[in-house]
Specification:
Elements: H1 9-35, H2 41-49, H3 68-80, H4 87-102, H5 105-117, E1 122-125, E2 141-145, E3 148-159, E4 166-174, E5 181-189, E6 195-200, E7 210-221, E8 225-226, H6 233-268, H7 280-308, H8 312-341, H9 354-364, H10 369-380
Parallel strand pairs: 1-4
Antiparallel strand pairs: 2-3, 3-7, 4-5, 5-8, 6-7
Length: about 375
């Protein structure tokens, strides 16, 4: 189901292999982990052993030498099997990509092998209480003090801080020439003095927890800065574009899983003389959901290919569109799946009701659909900004 027709034989083989791994674990494993308050450690470890976690990272640092095309495929297939790994979005996709592109040789040797083999994880801290993901309003600041950096600020809705060895923090430094603040990225180890993390209670069934971070005079050595202090938005968007592409993959996997459960049910559930899937009132909405997922995948693949080809500008537009399309398709697919099952769609046995909340996350994070529409309206269409 939902087999693409424009992928290489190598990509089709990777897709098949990852699907087999996901199906060995499946939704029951995922639900059990959530219910017990644990993490998907077994699946993470096996995916690492098979080389899937670092498929996008450079070979010289233990990765697979691929790109976001391959990593998004891995996440989509795990999601379609009912057991997505959210930290794939954060650790290898955002943090691994930024360090691989802009990190020093020492940072690459320190972090990339561990991110690739799954022995280390990294979280990503950008969102703030009063700024969301608007990098122009971020108030976390970094100032130089001798040879060190000192960070102060707050972050919210940061995934997986409790299981991450460090967090890649987006702060702002003052440009000595203009006095303006510009975004910069810092690696903050979890046990750094002044770095605090508090869990946020969420109405969301997921192994990965969300955290509020406090940075209170967090002192870091000079080599905690990733890349060039003057690169600003270039380095930031090197991580944000993969984040949007991977969020699209996460949403597509979720939508495919829900649609698959609904199709199986509609094919076998019989109320009158025929299976309920015979009736167009059920068949057509499921067909529409399938079409929407397929179209969203095409845009995601375009975005991933553009990013891997080094077209950051083109990838930015496509990544936002892919994230928007995949989120809308996933929400529709999950809603229609629950509706197809009727009362059974709300039972724990079928495990679809909890996905209603999860699907909406893709509409909200890492950037809302309204902000994507703002981006497209003024960047793609040339309309004036409303803000």
């Amino acid at each position: 189901m939902a087999t693409p027709t424009i992928e290489s034989e190598e990509h089709r083989a990777l897709r098949k292999a990852v699907a087999a791994l996901g199906n060995r674990y499946g939704r029951e494993y995922f639900a059990k982990v959530v219910a017990e308050g644990k993490h998907t450690d077994e699946l993470w470890s096996e995916a690492a052993r098979l080389g899937y976690l670092g498929v996008n990272l450079p070979q010289e640092y233990g990765g697979g030498g691929g790109g976001i095309v391959e990593l998004s495929l891995v996440l989509e297939e795990l999601g379609a099997a009912g057991c997505p790994l959210l930290m794939l979005v954060v650790s290898p996709a955002i943090c691994g990509t930024v360090i691989a592109r802009f990190g020093t040789e020492e940072q690459k040797r320190t972090w990339l092998p561990g991110l690739a083999d799954g022995s280390r994880k990294m979280a990503f801290g950008i969102t703030e209480p009063d700024a969301g993901s608007n990098s122009h309003r971020i108030t976390t600041t970094a100032r130089k003090d001798g040879g060190d950096w000192v960070l102060n600020g707050r972050k919210v809705f940061i995934s997986g801080v409790d299981i991450a060895d460090a967090t890649l923090i987006v702060g702002r430094t003052e440009d000595a020439r203009t006095g303006r603040l510009k975004p910069c990225l810092f690696i903050v180890p979890r046990d750094t003095p002044g770095f605090g993390h508090t869990p946020i209670a969420m109405e969301l069934s997921a192994p990965e927890k969300q955290f509020e971070l406090t940075l209170d005079d967090v002192r870091l050595p000079a080599d905690a800065l990733v890349g060039d202090e003057d690169a600003g938005l270039l380095q930031l968007f090197a991580g944000l574009n993969p984040e949007r592409i991977m969020t699209a993959a996460f949403a597509l996997g979720m939508g495919r899983y829900a649609l698959g459960r609904a199709v199986d049910y509609a094919r076998t559930r019989q109320v009158w003389k025929e299976p309920i899937g015979t009736h167009q009132a059920l068949a057509h909405p499921l067909a529409q959901a399938h079409i929407e997922l397929e179209l969203a995948r095409l845009m995601m693949q375009k975005a991933a290919h553009l990013y891997d080809a080094g077209d950051d500008l083109g990838a930015g537009e496509a990544a936002n569109m892919a994230k928007y399309a995949a989120a809308e398709a996933a929400v529709h697919a999950v809603d229609q799946a629950v509706h197809t099952l009727g009362g059974n769609g709300l039972t724990q046995e079928y495990g679809l009701a909890s996905m209603i909340t999860a699907a909406r996350v893709a509409r909200i994070a890492p950037v809302s659909r309204e902000m994507i529409l703002n981006f497209v309206s003024h960047q793609s269409l040339g309309l004036p900004k409303s803000y």
